[in-house]
Amino acid sequence: MGDNILVRGSPGSGKTTLAIRVVEELAGLGFKAAGLVTEEIREGKARRGFRIRDLRGGEAVMAHVDFRGGPRVGKYTVDLKALEEVALRAMDMARGGADLVVIDEIGKMEALSAAFRERVVELLDLPIPLLATIPVGEHPFVSTLIERPDVSVYHLDRRNRERTKEVVKEDLLRILGHG
Question: What is the pTM of this model?
């Protein structure tokens, strides 16, 4: 088993919720997390974009259907500057006393940034565990992460949400020397 955990699932499978709940439960045991989460921006039932939020403060809209002038992923235009400002700062903060690094998500939008990709690899090599979410589907960068010997991959779907959260938490506690 690796000391880094990737949770893979389809959109809506609960990846972000799992990451947030694991962080909250570990915080209740005294562990400090640093990193970022990606949240949907909705208008009614329609998804309009994505916001990236630093777990220790700071956020930005990183992709939106109304943005123009940047790289596109599906119907969304990605603001790489906003992504990098929040994500890179959040990942750098992980080096300053965090017990756990969380990245939700390492997906197509985030992987457009070379600096983001480099920082993810650097974090995987640190002696603290990384919990990250990844999408289903093929992506060259995500594939390189999955193939690493220091990574365990868990597949999440609506049926196994609670059990997967518990297994991920138990694995992190083991890695952190508390289980």
Answer: 0.94
Specify the 3-state DSSP secondary structure of 68: coil
10 CB-side CA count, 13 A: 5
List the structure tokens of 31.
């562990």
Query: Please, what are the domains in the chain?
Result: 4-38+80-175 (3.40.50.300)
CA distance readout (Å), 159 to 18, 27, 77, 136, 164: 13, 26, 32, 16, 10
In whole angstroms, what separates CA 40 from the centre of its chain? 13
55-78 pLDDT, tens per residue? 989 999 999 999 999 999 999 999
Report the alpha-carbon distance of residue 15 to residue 160 in Å, rounded.
11
Beta strands in 2-116 (DSSP E): 4-9, 33-43, 46-54, 59-64, 72-73, 76-78, 100-104
